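Example 5.3 — Rho-GAP domain-containing protein
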Amino acid sequence: MTDVLPQPDCSLKAVCEPLERCCLDPLEEPGSKRPPNTGARLWGRVRSKLLRQKLDPQTVETKNWHTDVIEMNGIKVEFSMKFTSRDMSLKRTPSKKQTGVFGVKISVVTKRERSKVPYIVRQCVEEVEKRGIEEVGIYRISGVATDIQALKAVFDANNKDILLMLSDMDINAIAGTLKLYFRELPEPLLTDRLYPAFMEGIALSDPAAKENCMMHLLRSLPDPNLITFLFLLEHLKRVAEKEPINKMSLHNLATVFGPTLLRPSEVESKAHLTSAADIWSHDVMAQVQVLLYYLQHPPISFAELKRNTLYFSTDV
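Solution (predicted structure tokens):
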């Protein structure tokens, strides 16, 4: 028997491969043969079991690790799981870090690099568009956690082998690294200060008032945040153009990125809401709708936004 311990963020491919290798090993009984695709079928059972556990109210309420074992054709998979609320998994911790790129203010990174968009964002986007834009579930399917951490380390160290490593890395790990970068910013890309205004703007029922409000909020962002947001926005639109192949619609992409780019500050959360369930129901749908609004909007030009800023500031 073989024990296979999946990591928390591992992909189906990453787990199936070692399971399939187990299936090809000589068996103790001569002449016996395992059915084909045992690894994939076994991991399918594991995923189904994990999903059932995730939906079980008792599992959600407990903070303890839950261990289970699934066996098929002589292969045993032992795995452990523990529920962590979305609020805790996306919680941002203050950081005074000034080196590297993860956990560092975007204004610090762009100033140090003398760039408009952080190098890590540009390189991950370029690699995804080069060989992952038609990947089914791109940005939705998790990369292998160890690969993502390896990429994080080389970007933080500004290693000269970054480009070579990117070219060899699984595309889902690169997509995961980009998401992790935005998730670990000291404050979300659309800022803590403007969060309440985004929530109010997206709730407006009058289309003209909503348009004016949502564009004004973009103009209110710091330049590094705004330029990076517009850069990411156009990238996500290009990904969605391949929806018939990659199955990632604008709404799917907004669901993945919305809560990462736009989150209430810890002070805001404590002031208005009392539980993780409230945070989910009250905020996440609105966060998704904010990003979806901009994704569905005609192309937004940084220069045009700035021209409008001058117009509004002089038209008194």
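Remark. Residues 276-296 form the longest helix (21 residues).
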